[in-house]
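The data layer described in this paper is built around a simple, fixed record for each protein. We quote a single record here, exactly as it is kept in our systems:
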Amino acid sequence: MAASHAAFSFAGYRHTTRVIPLPKGGRSNYKQAMPTLRVVDSITELSPVDAGCIAVSGSHGGLSSARYALAARPLLSIFNDAGVGKDSAGVAALDFLQASGLAACTVSHKSARIGEALSTMCDGVISYANPLALMLGVQVSEGCQRVLDKLQTH
């Protein structure tokens, strides 16, 4: 196991939400709490209680995975493009989730192992993103970890 994976070696790692107290003087300077980070080998591990989270998965970005993400409604779903495949089946989740108002992107199968969320998070490089993901600040060719760092500090 690579050192970059050692800190997150247990399945179902759940990052806790950080609550930022209101500053003196009211809500004008209030920043919302950071979204929960869910790192799951399979998108099927998400449930409706994960709504609003950032979901990093090892799942392919096909339609079957998209349906599980739709049921859970994360703020952002990150999949593996699985080599894209025939008729772009490996990234079909992006358009499907966009049509449902959900941000989604994929990492390249050449940068991260399919089925391993820790590889997606630590090694993945964004290969495709839907317009809602782009609006969140996701950029193609950017490392997944960098995307997560940006989303959790804004």
In short: The chain is about 30% helix and 15% strand. The mean pLDDT is 85. Helices lie at 3-6, 63-72, 92-99, 117-123, 131-136, 144-151. The beta strands are 37-40, 54-60, 76-80, 103-107, 126-129.
